[in-house]
Amino acid sequence: MNLLREDCEIVVLDKLSRLGDEPEDVFYAQGNILSTQEVRDVFKKYGPFETVYHLAAEMPDKSASDMLLWETNVRGTINVVKEAVKNKTESFIFTSSNVAYGIPKKLPVREEDPLNSLEIYGKSKAKAEKELEGFRGKINTQIIRCPVISGVGRLGLQSILFEFISENKNVYVLGDGSNKYQFVDADDACDALKLASTKKGFDVYNIGADEILSLRQIYQKIIEYAGSNSKIISLPNKPALITLAILEKLNISPLGVYQYSMIGRSLYMDTAKIKTKLHWKPRKTNLDTFIDNYKWYIENKNSFKTLGSENVSSNRSLPKMGVFKLLKMIS
After folding, report:
1. Three-state secondary-structure class, residue 203
2. What are the extents of the domains in the chain?
3. Cβ neighbourhood burial of 180 (10 Å; 0-12, 13-18, 19+)
4. Distance separating alpha carbons of residues 121 and 127, to the nearest angstrom
5. Which fold has domain 10-330?
6. From the CB of residue 282, how many other CB atoms can be counted at a distance below 10 Å?
7. Coil, strand, or helix at residue 159?
8. Which of 155, 138, 164, 150 is nearest to 61 (CA)?
9. Kind plus residue range of the DSSP H or E element containing 42
10. How far, in Å, CA of 196 to CA of 203, rounded?
11. Mean pLDDT across the chain, nearest whole number?
12. Tens-digit pLDDT profile for residues 128-161
């Protein structure tokens, strides 16, 4: 994601190893936001900062415990914002998540709708939002609720779909696959973050792509683009959900609670507020980002590491497929 402007420098604080492909005017500090001293050292060495983009989070990818996830996403956020306030940072931009909404009672979801997350990751994001609201008046704080960020280099669970399609294996939807799930392109997300940094006060915004297709439509378009022989197979909703829940409890499925609960449901957000207040508009549709990422996946297929085997982001790692290996064999 590119947050660079011609007149600025960026300092990245991350617990992961440096990728090595950052621009020259990006300074990298390896550290952990759970360490107040390491956060303080970055502000002391590189500050003062005009804007802090707080993008760091422990993800629900089964590589970390629930306790570590909660501590990182909540206490880590408090550590960073406290230091930002102490050092008189002008703006604090926080990336929250659509998973904080849980299963919405109506669509599209709006910013004022209640947060009723199903699992620990969404609950941690909602709690972090609440903590940040306590700093209202001390620092300009803008919260961006993102759907899954897709696009070049953003793998995660998409890599399973891409692997099946690239190897002519069947892919699966729950029910008829007509449910619509919103994503957002990485570059479009960056545009929203940069625009948010110009706003005063405290506010919350939904972002997401326009022209939302159903999962079946997206899968079919990727199959056609890839020239694959894969077919889309419908699974009965309730039996599939029960099976996925059991597999998750046995820790042999790459899908967490939220992922298997929502795989057959629709979730998309109303983005009118950010379009009106910040004049933001997504440039890419969900399909655009999936096709871009599929191309990148094919070009780099032999270079990925399994999640947990290397100190790299889960977005550039392959999730442990677990029982999906068997599903691939029989597809």
Report:
1. strand
2. 10-330
3. middle
4. 10
5. Rossmann fold (3.40.50)
6. 24
7. helix
8. 155
9. helix 36-46
10. 9
11. 89
12. 999 999 999 999 999 999 999 988 877 778 889 9
